[in-house]
Amino acid sequence: MSQTTTPAEARTVQSAPPPGADSARTRTIGRVKRTLTPYGFLSPTGVLLIILMITPIIMVVSYSLLDRVITNKNPAFVGFDNYVEVLTDPVFFTAVRNTLVFTISSVIVHFAIGLAFALMLNSPLLKDRTKAFFRVLYILPWLFTVAIVAVLWRLLLSPNGVVNYLLGTAGLTDGQTEWLANPSTALAAVTFINIWSGYPFFMISLLAGLQGIPKDLYEAARVDGAGVVAQFRNVTLPQLRPIIISMALLDFIWTTQQFALIWMTTGGGPINSTEVLSTFTYKLAFTEYEFSVASASAVLVLLMSMVLAFFYVRHQKARD
């Protein structure tokens, strides 16, 4: 007896999905979810970057192309006139020179002091308690905020401060030197303060690098007859080179953007002797109310920082 199929049953059979269709659809949905999940986790950070970084940068760039922005309701488009005004200002080149002197001196001495202290703290000649004491002592400058550092050294370097008293007692000066108010000594003084407060960054990083060098390398060098200097030159420095380059680039970027320390000690004076790019830009905006010119100066600083950041990222990729 033959079995007949009604039209409704035939439509049901024809509309039924082929075998495995549900599993293929499930795999596709799962693949899409796995692809979008990382972006979902990154989306809050992306939104914050757009709001707090990308949007302000776009606004500053647009301000730099306008005339008398913020103070004028209808600012006119002036193109690159603000950049020309900044680049023809002699104070700008004074700020660039002071920034380079301040930054290069700080980075070099940061490295020298940090390496010397790191070698001492990694030396087997010192006992563990002695090392612990000096680690706490040497890292103290890094624990102070910029405001505390500025106030502390303003008191120490005042005409009636401890530094003048000690130098006067030793007969090295007359004991009344205006370290932060004298154009010939102000830049050296703020550079010294920045060195004092920043060398622990190098010290900690280099100490970690020294502790990661395999002991076998030093044993092999001693077997080959290498002395202490030869071991330092042929083993220690090559092993620390990636860390040194990374720390130097980071320190260079951070020091070029130093503002709070200089502003709270000298304010860029006296007579522009400690004027750097950050204080120069700040004064244009909030002292002279030239927001358009200040925006142009800020864009120039941003471009310089991007060049340094490019070399840092390139070094990190080469290191990886």
Automatic annotation (TrEMBL):
One Pfam family linked to the record: BPD_transp_1
Location within or outside the cell: Cell membrane
PROSITE patterns named among the record's database cross-references: ABC_TM1
Segments traversing the membrane: 41-66, 100-121, 133-156, 186-208, 243-264, 291-313
Segments forming domain ABC transmembrane type-1: 96-312
Keywords: Cell membrane, Membrane, Sugar transport, Transmembrane, Transmembrane helix, Transport
Membrane topology according to the record: Multi-pass membrane protein
Biased composition range(s): Polar residues: 1-15
Source domain of life: Bacteria
Stretches for region Disordered: 1-25
SUPFAM superfamilies according to UniProt: MetI-like (SSF161098)
InterPro entries: MetI-like, MetI-like_sf
Similarity field: Belongs to the binding-protein-dependent transport system permease family.
PANTHER family: BLR7065 PROTEIN, SPERMIDINE_PUTRESCINE TRANSPORT SYSTEM PERMEASE PROTEIN
Protein name: Multiple sugar transport system permease protein
